[in-house]
């Protein structure tokens, strides 16, 4: 799949290897699988699963309301394209999950994570 572009796909599993997967404006389901993956759901309300190893979850302007199923300390939330800082996002506990939001109404839910484990080292700005 090297240098492959898939159009109109709303669910993809990268399997083994180091993948870069970019979603669409639809509500995508993206699974990185094994490897050090870079996942970007694009616009829409996406379900992202990095899989084994450290993964980068990339968010661009108007990313929607995305959910990350398996965030770990080895992963990073990449907000570098937004021109914001750690102080510009809101991070709260929401039940058994962490809810991260920006001033534009976009959000990231980290399933099964305690807010006390999240700090600026989990982000790239």
From TrEMBL:
The Gene Ontology terms for molecular function here are: calcium ion binding
Q: Which InterPro entries match?
A: Hemolysin-typ_Ca-bd_CS (IPR018511), Hemolysn_Ca-bd (IPR001343), Serralysin-like_metalloprot_C (IPR011049)
Q: Which domain of life is it from?
A: Bacteria
- Gene3D superfamilies the record matches: Serralysin-like metalloprotease, C-terminal
Pfam families listed in its UniProt record: HemolysinCabind
Q: What is this protein called?
A: Hemolysin-type calcium-binding repeat-containing protein
The species this protein was found in: Kordiimonas lacus
